[in-house]
């Protein structure tokens, strides 16, 4: 992978001007043409950089809110559902609503929920409606699915993971992300371009506590328990050399306190960590995201510790992602930032 940074990003104007001015000393017609070209290039490169009226304030964020009609339609669909399911993505915990109000709304609805990305930990580590395992089977059986702040990309089989029999309610701020891969592999029964957290808050106000079939929740919980039992069984297999990663993750999870922020950076190791480690609360999980930007772990850990100095910060590295982050250990030392590392 080759990454090129523009010269005006790397060096200030005066440095570049000095270098360009000394690159041509010709006095003839050719030299004058070259000097004209280089000076013109320099001016174009920094065009507008010194304008006094250049705006420096943040660009206002336009957050769309759901219409009453959309909330009412969704409420009607859920009131008739036998096996409703919620999938939350990272976008759901963005301001202005915030994680606390979203959590209250999800708990009020009582619908089983799968959390992904930054929404992990939203309901704490032991919520009866928070599921982590056997999501594909749950989506196969659900009759109404709300995709809130998530995207039907590779993580959901581009929408193919949804059952053809399910009614999917998609909620997303972005029109493009809202119906991504729709009409190819899936079709939303209701597409709402709005902030998903606000959508759930208004939905909970409209429905109150939904009477979800306890057998549906029990079925999902049984699958959850079986998967976790299997993972713990595999964790007991002690190899002749090296470590059993599942054993490491289970032991780590058993040792974390409620004020811990988990940073996960890697591939397979992080994939396992997402199913085993239980974030203790909202906004206590950071990972490379859908684009798999390995190497962010150390930077995330520094930022997390500086923002929340009283929290323990634990970083789970894969071997490759650790290699990207070795230089940052010097940054940890220089800024006296403490974190715990596992790889």
From TrEMBL:
Its cofactor is Mg(2+); thiamine diphosphate. Residues 72-201 form the Thiamine pyrophosphate enzyme central domain. The keyword Metal-binding applies. GO terms for biological process: isoleucine biosynthetic process; L-valine biosynthetic process. GO terms for molecular function: acetolactate synthase activity; flavin adenine dinucleotide binding; magnesium ion binding; thiamine pyrophosphate binding. Keywords: Metal-binding, Thiamine pyrophosphate. It catalyses: 2-hydroxyoctadecanoyl-CoA = heptadecanal + formyl-CoA; (2R)-hydroxyhexadecanoyl-CoA = pentadecanal + formyl-CoA. Residues 265-338 form the Thiamine pyrophosphate enzyme TPP-binding domain. GO terms for cellular component: acetolactate synthase complex. PANTHER family: 2-HYDROXYACYL-COA LYASE 2, THIAMINE PYROPHOSPHATE ENZYMES. Belongs to the TPP enzyme family. This is 2-hydroxyacyl-CoA lyase 2.
């Amino acid at each position: 992978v080759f990454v090129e940074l523009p010269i005006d990003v790397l060096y200030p104007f005066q440095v570049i001007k000095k270098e360009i001015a000394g690159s041509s000393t010709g006095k003839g017609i050719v030299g004058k043409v070259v000097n004209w070209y280089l000076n013109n290039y320099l001016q174009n490169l920094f065009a507008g950089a010194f304008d006094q009226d250049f705006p420096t304030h943040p660009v206002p964020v336009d957050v769309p809110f759901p219409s009453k009609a959309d909330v009412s339609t969704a409420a009607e669909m859920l009131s008739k559902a036998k096996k409703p399911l919620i999938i939350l993505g990272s976008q759901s915990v963005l301001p202005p609503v915030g994680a606390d109000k979203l959590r209250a709304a999800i708990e009020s609805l009582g619908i089983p929920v799968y959390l992904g990305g930054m929404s992990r930990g939203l309901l704490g580590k032991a919520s009866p409606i928070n599921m982590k395992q056997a999501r594909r089977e749950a989506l196969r059986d659900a009759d109404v699915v709300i995709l809130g702040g998530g995207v039907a990309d590779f993580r959901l089989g581009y929408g193919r993971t949804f059952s053809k029999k399910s009614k999917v309610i998609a909620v997303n701020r972005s029109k493009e992300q809202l119906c991504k891969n729709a009409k190819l592999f899936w079709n939303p029964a209701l597409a709402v371009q709005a902030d998903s957290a606000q959508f759930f808050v208004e939905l909970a106000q409209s429905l109150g506590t939904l009477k979800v079939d306890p057998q549906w929740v029990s079925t999902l919980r049984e699958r959850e328990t079986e998967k976790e039992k299997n993972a713990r069984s595999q964790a007991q297999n002690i190899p002749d050399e090296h470590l059993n990663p599942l054993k490491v993750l289970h032991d780590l999870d058993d040792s974390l306190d409620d004020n811990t922020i988990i940073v996960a950076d890697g591939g397979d190791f992080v994939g396992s960590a997402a199913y085993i480690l239980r974030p203790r609360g909202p906004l206590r999980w950071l990972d490379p995201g859908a684009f798999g930007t390995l190497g962010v772990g150390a930077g995330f850990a520094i930022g997390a510790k500086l923002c929340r100095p009283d929290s323990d910060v634990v970083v789970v590295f894969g071997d490759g992602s650790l290699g990207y982050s070795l230089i940052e250990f010097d940054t940890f030392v220089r800024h006296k930032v403490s974190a715990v590392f596992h790889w």
